[in-house]
TrEMBL record:
GO molecular function, one term: ATP hydrolysis activity
Protein name: Phosphonate transport system ATP-binding protein
UniProt lineage: Bacteria, Pseudomonadati, Pseudomonadota, Betaproteobacteria, Burkholderiales
A Pfam family: ABC_tran
Keywords, sorted A to Z: ATP-binding, Cell membrane, Membrane, Nucleotide-binding
Length: 270
């Protein structure tokens, strides 16, 4: 099982941010987390990545290993789980290429490998993978540019490339298409899919029209609870369930989230 959650509860002060009795995600699954702003999507993703904002109760296994509240993911598990954060977390003073290569550091064997990587001397096979990904991401011409001089969308591509170089078995992507133009967003779904290969992909998705490209299963959260869990298809009942998921938050329009673009909700018919 890629993710196995039982009796999970995460509280912060008086507030319950997550309450999930069971959640299982199988190896290779493509899962989209959807729901209104503040529903707990990013909190769940961070928890799966060992970065919960507060202590939690319950049982959590990620890629078959037990994760403990208050502790970071064990080192070997950190190598197998990649995250594309909302804030991207790139190293600003390094080039796009070096940021991609950082993703591969955990694959360099032993201290000698680490030191070589940190000095910029990566094994030729890894350097070739970075160059191939830069090309795929349309970043070859910007490979040597510092990432703090790149546009938001270019930086987002770098973050996807870095995750790909990690060769993760589980990829957690938090609005990884938020800053991309519509064409690049559609491409990014392919990039994420390729980045994780036969592993599992869990993405927070605001652009519902991307659901069929990004996921085969959609999990809807509201107020920290799973209120929708079903296959992504084009059925009227799913469309209706998604409308209800967002409509139940009268103050929040589903398509006002950061990164929502013109026509982003076209997949959910009016
Ligand atoms: N570190 C924190 N301290 C206090 N509150 C937090 C913290 N992290 C998350 N929250 C709260 O938890 C709730 C869920 O936040 P989360 O970011 O998971 O929502 P989300 O579904 O990802 O929302 P969005 O779609 O707006 O990104 C929010 O009400 C948020 O204010």
């Amino acid at each position: 099982m890629s993710v196995h959650v039982e009796a999970l509860r995460l509280e912060l002060g008086e507030r319950c941010l997550l309450a999930i009795p069971h959640l299982h995600i199988a190896p290779g699954e493509r899962v989209a987390l959807v729901g209104p702003n503040g529903a707990g999507k990013s909190t769940l993703l961070r928890l799966l990545g060992g970065q919960a904002p507060a202590p939690w109760q319950g049982r959590l296994q990620v890629l078959g290993q037990t994760v403990t509240s208050g502790a970071a993911l064990p080192r070997d598990l950190r190598q197998r789980v990649a995250m594309v954060h909302q804030g991207l977390h790139l190293v600003d003073r390094l080039s796009a290429r070096d940021n991609l290569l950082i993703g591969a550091l955990s694959r360099c064997q032993g201290w000698a490998g680490w030191r070589a990587g940190l000095a910029g001397h990566y094994p030729a096979a890894i350097a070739a993978q970075a160059d191939a990904w830069l090309q795929r991401l349309g970043l070859s011409a910007l490979a040597q540019h510092r990432v703090d001089r790149l546009s938001g969308g270019e930086r987002q591509r770098v973050a996807v490339g870095r995750a790909a170089l990690q060769r993760p078995e589980l990829l957690l992507a938090d609005e990884a298409t938020a800053q991309l133009d519509p064409q690049a967003s559609a491409q990014a779904c392919q990039w994420l899919d390729q980045a994780v290969a036969r592993g599992s992909l869990i993405s927070v998705v605001h652009q519902l029209d991307l659901l069929p490209r990004l996921a085969s299963r959609v999990i809807g959260l509201r107020a920290g609870r799973v209120v929708l869990d079903r296959a992504v298809d084009d059925s009227p009942s799913l469309q209706q369930a998604l409308r209800e998921l967002y409509a139940s938050e009268p103050d929040v329009h589903p398509f006002d989230g950061a990164g929502a673009q013109e026509g982003a909700h076209a997949w959910v018919r009016a």
